[in-house]
Amino acid sequence: MAEEGINKRKTEHIRICLTDNVEGVNKSTGLEGISFIHNALPEVNFHDIKLETRFLDKTLQAPFLVSSMTGGSEMAAEINRNLAIAAEERGWAIALGSTRAILEGDKHQDSFLIRKYAPTVPIIANLGAVQLNYGYGADEAQKLVDLTEADSLYLHLNSLQEIIQDEGDLNFEDLLPKIEEVCKQLTVPVGVKEVGFGIDGTVARKLHDAGVAYIDVSGAGGTSWSQVEKLRSKDPLRKAAAEAFNNWGIPTKDCIVSVKNNLHQVPVVASGGMKTGLDAAKAITIGADMIGFARTLLQAATESAEAVNRVMEQIEFELKIAMFGIGVKDLKELKNTNRVEIMGKSLLEG
Amino acid sequence: MAEEGINKRKTEHIRICLTDNVEGVNKSTGLEGISFIHNALPEVNFHDIKLETRFLDKTLQAPFLVSSMTGGSEMAAEINRNLAIAAEERGWAIALGSTRAILEGDKHQDSFLIRKYAPTVPIIANLGAVQLNYGYGADEAQKLVDLTEADSLYLHLNSLQEIIQDEGDLNFEDLLPKIEEVCKQLTVPVGVKEVGFGIDGTVARKLHDAGVAYIDVSGAGGTSWSQVEKLRSKDPLRKAAAEAFNNWGIPTKDCIVSVKNNLHQVPVVASGGMKTGLDAAKAITIGADMIGFARTLLQAATESAEAVNRVMEQIEFELKIAMFGIGVKDLKELKNTNRVEIMGKSLLEG
Amino acid sequence: MAEEGINKRKTEHIRICLTDNVEGVNKSTGLEGISFIHNALPEVNFHDIKLETRFLDKTLQAPFLVSSMTGGSEMAAEINRNLAIAAEERGWAIALGSTRAILEGDKHQDSFLIRKYAPTVPIIANLGAVQLNYGYGADEAQKLVDLTEADSLYLHLNSLQEIIQDEGDLNFEDLLPKIEEVCKQLTVPVGVKEVGFGIDGTVARKLHDAGVAYIDVSGAGGTSWSQVEKLRSKDPLRKAAAEAFNNWGIPTKDCIVSVKNNLHQVPVVASGGMKTGLDAAKAITIGADMIGFARTLLQAATESAEAVNRVMEQIEFELKIAMFGIGVKDLKELKNTNRVEIMGKSLLEG
Amino acid sequence: MAEEGINKRKTEHIRICLTDNVEGVNKSTGLEGISFIHNALPEVNFHDIKLETRFLDKTLQAPFLVSSMTGGSEMAAEINRNLAIAAEERGWAIALGSTRAILEGDKHQDSFLIRKYAPTVPIIANLGAVQLNYGYGADEAQKLVDLTEADSLYLHLNSLQEIIQDEGDLNFEDLLPKIEEVCKQLTVPVGVKEVGFGIDGTVARKLHDAGVAYIDVSGAGGTSWSQVEKLRSKDPLRKAAAEAFNNWGIPTKDCIVSVKNNLHQVPVVASGGMKTGLDAAKAITIGADMIGFARTLLQAATESAEAVNRVMEQIEFELKIAMFGIGVKDLKELKNTNRVEIMGKSLLEG
Ligand SMILES: Cc1cc2nc3c(=O)[nH]c(=O)nc-3n(C[C@H](O)[C@H](O)[C@H](O)COP(=O)(O)O)c2cc1C
Ligand SMILES: Cc1cc2nc3c(=O)[nH]c(=O)nc-3n(C[C@H](O)[C@H](O)[C@H](O)COP(=O)(O)O)c2cc1C
Ligand SMILES: Cc1cc2nc3c(=O)[nH]c(=O)nc-3n(C[C@H](O)[C@H](O)[C@H](O)COP(=O)(O)O)c2cc1C
Ligand SMILES: Cc1cc2nc3c(=O)[nH]c(=O)nc-3n(C[C@H](O)[C@H](O)[C@H](O)COP(=O)(O)O)c2cc1C
């Protein structure tokens, strides 16, 4: 697909994500099956609650990540700038949308260069893993990291998105050894993420064995690419297929549990349908180390850095309320709380 | 927050509770999971059914309590008067809304002085437990009890309400020893209550070990403070947070079961979402000793003592119907009935 | 209550049952949890399917009963006539509404004298069991049977109906020995029925031990007296109580199973919410011997005997279809079929 | 019923199936209880995925079948032509609607002669099994096969349809030995199908023992004949009966599982409510060998062969997407995948 075409598609994606219902049908993250058990006597001072954490060898003010969204257009430049400024202000990590455009000499490649707005927080560059079957390798990956001054690289897995969207790059054969090669060569740690259909423990284990440093599950329950394509596509075949698959994907909650069961020590980023700090609190309770937000930040990102900052503040506030509500004062205590009921089973009452 | 501000807020609370939907979203008391097994041959005379019980060393005509609501304004004075007259007429206990205003020399402090309307039934004064971290202690508590001629004092726990409402008094650290001190010093027994998010058995045990005489669970499923604040607040941060927490809290049914499992002998007041005498019957069957009604009485309380009396009569009548329906003739038999199905498990069929 | 009052009430009941929604709220018979497992190769000739059965020492053309509804007014006379003629034509049993009015010399007592319209089928007279505490005994019962030329007497248990309706005759104490006395004295067998709240196995066993020959469960899921009273009553206390109890009662399915578990040999009449021949088939599969229909026949009964006959034919046709669908050719085979799934458990697959 | 009458009825069926809601009430195939577990790293090339399979000794391009629908009228001739041309183009098998009309010398018997449009793919002729009790036998069956140049014969079982529709041919007694006779005599293999109420394993086993070569379950969850008759019939008795049975039938998913549990080696055709290639993928995962589509193709079949071809392409595309989504590259791998969750139980996580 020509560069022009990709940019048009990406702009349409943003527009549709801003205005339409792009959630899967009868699909949720599964986090509604988790509820905290209120602690009427919290025995903490709300003002002492701490959200600090470490990620990619840096200290963050909160366990939060701006998930990969965009780059490669004028609108994208604006969005990325706003996200980066706010991320720096609030001490969040930030991931870029697919940075492949840089390698292809895109005229809007500046849109990816956000280090000037976010001098201290972790930045994560991004490349479609499938591109390793289409001419890209460790050298190009390193180039992306260098140009964006990133602390890490995301390889994203997006098989279903590719097929529903344009039958573009559909050869996912033998990717694993190539991912391994990139992990070996790169000067920064490599994370792997999905784009909304989820990564389970079996796949995560293979990826970790290949050298992947952390997993971003990006599960189902949030932005659904089959839904986006149903709204965008004009090809009846694809429109109908998108409709048929509106329920596809592993719910984010199931991804987290499955990955944690398989890989106890590897950092897990929970993303896909995260909307509030309460969602974040639940995900942390079942094993997530970091929480990624994509669409939840999109509207504000088209407005201003201040607007993004306000949404971020909101999310942090809600996470703190949840922690206050069960009486824990830092993330470690939150991870280990028994004041939680998972699918009707209370950890407190046993 | 200035006195004027508190009064304004309290009046808004009443107004919102009277006119809007203030129940949590997808949240219920859990009592709908309990159903009685009709006894076609009750073998009792309806007219012999007795509701009498003992509470705070007095005999009540029914196991019912007017839950803490208000005080400290003109409207509150009227409400409290109506509630008190009706409570006396029907032999219910009555609790006051937070009486802290008395200590601060509020001009409407007369609104709390209801002993003249309710000379014989138990009156319970009320203070926010968190105030023990903000300058109040056993002496002030005793003063409240003395001024209101109360038979007992409620310390209410309202962490989530405080945070969603105004980030006022948020230091809940080390409250337990202070509660213990109050229990030790006070001339009357101290009860602890929540305000709608519920107390579980673990917390109840700690409180009881500290000297608390009885527990009012005030669980989720009735008036929801996150909902009230969502409607009241003008601050978008708080409004959104209130929305995110519209599902928070331990359902009243779960509170009762959990507290009873942990504290077999301690009196439990079931409140939070109690609407009918049938709700009361269910709560008693799973362990409650007293049933508290707040919002269910509010509308009538703004009208007249007669209106309150009629709602109370209604509730008593319904409790008797339930007892007749299963063929028991006093509260002891009700507590021990096996004509009940709890979450699909029949105690009768085993 | 004066005779005039009773008649007025009964006429209102009929009118409300004809025009309004009188089913309980979120209440069903439970039969929807039973489904037959279609037999694609039934290996029977539809025209050979037999519905014949024995009841009260007579042969019926189908295992069906016109449940107790009415008597004692002009409208009732018409209804009873139509029901009786159709029952005779189709070989159904027929029960009368409460026949107490006869004893009190009601001017419409002719309305109960249906033997002339139904010379051969079983007729069941009817008296409120609670009347045994209010001056009636075996002699009066025998008189009812004699006057109506009945084959049996129903004693109906209606505690909840009485209390919600008028607090009339509410002394249900020590009824059992009096029921025993009636059973002993009467020249015909005595059955006991509820009126829509259900009889469970424990109560059924007591009744059987007292000499009751068969049990009509009349469970919840059909006509709900709390609903009828909610619509009829003008007294706000009763209206609200009726509302609170709109979910009360043991679902018909649970009654049948419970009674059969306790009394293997005693005939069980399933009534309460029976609408179609498919409902009947399900009830038979779980143990019912006879199926009673009240409100399902009411509309037609106000029209003509032909209209009633058509509804009866409809029900028989549906029962036969169900039997054809699973490939059984008589009621004995239906009772023993394993082509049924009960609450998700298939008897066929084990 | 006269020939004219049958044709009229069949045309009405088509019209109703095209325009009205003809699905059962609260009835589904059960396939919604199956979900695939997305494989984020599929390790296959989408373009290598193969759908080829063998059926009736021929190679098909996809495991798909045009289910029996029609014949015997002008409209039917057009429909069958379009279906046949498209089936040939895409390499699907195709079954005819009941071909009994041929034997009765129907004037539209040409409508069944589709071999000229579909020279290479398997064609299946069709006869109501119950006709074996009404004068037809192996000779007539052979004649149908010969005239239609079919590779196989379907005997369809349609007891419930017959009874709800017209009480026509309702003697299903002793059909089994006659089916056995047909299987023995015929020069081609015999399959048995239902018409939407489903075949379970017990029945399938009997049929297989009698010589039936394959089973088409045609379960509930798709076109419901009780629904069709409810809309079509003018006889109130039948209309009401159809309504009462709107929930009858074994869901397609349950049929497949039950038949496979009983007959491990016998080919199973899954039909009844199959709408997408994703449905097909699910059915294959639980044991189906072929997937049949009736109503899903009907609208297109009234338009043109190209329209049918497009729907078929759609279905194939969706099946491939599902296979890509879990990372399998042929039907054998699909059948054996553990990337599936059945009724909440994950085969992957155990
Ligand atoms: C507008 C938009 C653009 C996106 N672009 C990318 C991308 O270029 N690369 C990528 O890995 N993920 C991309 N994603 C996926 C997100 O990173 C995330 O995995 C997914 O949206 C689920 O999270 P959410 O429910 O919070 O939106 C995009 C998401 C959105 C909403
Ligand atoms: C208008 C209103 C004011 C209240 N004020 C107080 C209060 O001052 N102190 C307190 O402990 N609880 C207060 N409550 C909480 C109630 O005592 C009770 O715990 C809660 O409302 C749940 O019960 P309900 O569902 O019956 O309303 C108030 C409740 C209402 C509706
Ligand atoms: C209009 C009407 C009047 C009834 N009157 C009597 C009665 O006099 N005696 C009695 O035992 N049951 C009476 N019943 C109760 C029925 O016999 C039956 O137990 C109950 O209605 C449940 O059955 P259904 O759901 O088929 O209506 C009456 C029911 C109706 C609808
Ligand atoms: C319009 C129409 C006509 C049908 N005619 C026949 C028929 O003649 N013989 C037969 O065996 N099945 C017939 N069927 C049943 C189908 O073959 C199939 O078993 C059933 O419709 C369920 O599949 P579906 O949900 O995909 O429609 C017909 C179905 C339809 C929709």
Q: How would you concisely characterize the structure shown here?
A:
4 copies of one chain form a homotetramer. Chain A is an alpha/beta fold. In chain A, 43% of the residues lie in helices and 13% in strands.
List keywords for this structure.
homotetramer, Isopentenyl-diphosphate delta-isomerase (chains A, B, C, D), eight-stranded parallel β-barrel, 350 residues, binds flavin mononucleotide, 13 strands, globular, alpha/beta, TIM Barrel
CATH architecture title of chain A = Alpha-Beta Barrel
CATH class of chain A: Alpha Beta
Could you tell me the mean pLDDT of chain A? 95
Largest sheet of chain A: 8 strands, parallel, barrel
- By secondary-structure content and strand pairing, the structural class of chain A works out as alpha/beta
Domain module tally of chain A? 1
Order of SSEs of chain A, N→C?
A: HEEEEHEHEHEHHEHEHHHEHEHHHEE
Domain FMN-dependent dehydrogenase (chains A, B, C, D): 178-337
Pfam family, one (chains A, B, C, D): FMN_dh
Cofactor (chains A, B, C, D): FMN; Mg(2+); NADPH
Function (chains A, B, C, D): Involved in the biosynthesis of isoprenoids. Catalyzes the 1,3-allylic rearrangement of the homoallylic substrate isopentenyl (IPP) to its allylic isomer, dimethylallyl diphosphate (DMAPP).
Could you explain the architecture of this structure?
The structure is a homotetramer of 350-residue chains. Chain A is of the alpha/beta class and 350 residues long. The first copy, chain A, has a single domain, classed as Aldolase class I (TIM Barrel, Alpha-Beta Barrel), CATH 3.20.20. In chain A, 43% of the residues lie in helices and 13% in strands. Chain A contains 14 helices and 13 strands. An eight-stranded parallel barrel of chain A has the order 4-5-6-7-8-9-10-11, surrounded by seven helices. In chain A, strands 1-12-13 form a three-stranded antiparallel beta sheet. In chain A, strands 2-3 form a two-stranded antiparallel sheet. In chain A, helix 11 packs across helix 13. The longest helix of chain A has 22 residues, at 305-326. Chains in contact: A-B, A-D, B-C, C-D. Chains C and D meet through helix 13 of C and helix 5, helix 7 and helix 9 of D. The complex binds flavin mononucleotide (FMN) (4 copies).
